[in-house]
Amino acid sequence: PNAALRGHCALDGEGRRLVADAVDRGGMSARGVHRALCVARTIADLAGEEEVSAMRLAEALQYRAYEARHSASR
């Protein structure tokens, strides 16, 4: 599954930087990164895009951050 995801979610330099920031600053785990990449791939698919852009990855990371903030308050 991970190899298949990497093939469908190849990241450019900006995307790799976003992931590194999420891990370094936000404490995101490898599992969290995997989930964010899956969400980014879905967003790109819904938009009819072949590639997962840094913009789509940033959107997915924002959803993950929102989810983390709001699930902690439950």
UniProtKB/TrEMBL annotation:
Looking at the record, the residues that make up the Mg chelatase-related protein C-terminal domain are 2-64
- Pfam families on file: Mg_chelatase_C (PF13335)
In terms of InterPro entries, this protein maps to: Mg_chelat-rel_C (IPR025158)
Source domain of life is Bacteria
Output this protein's name. Answer: Mg chelatase-related protein C-terminal domain-containing protein
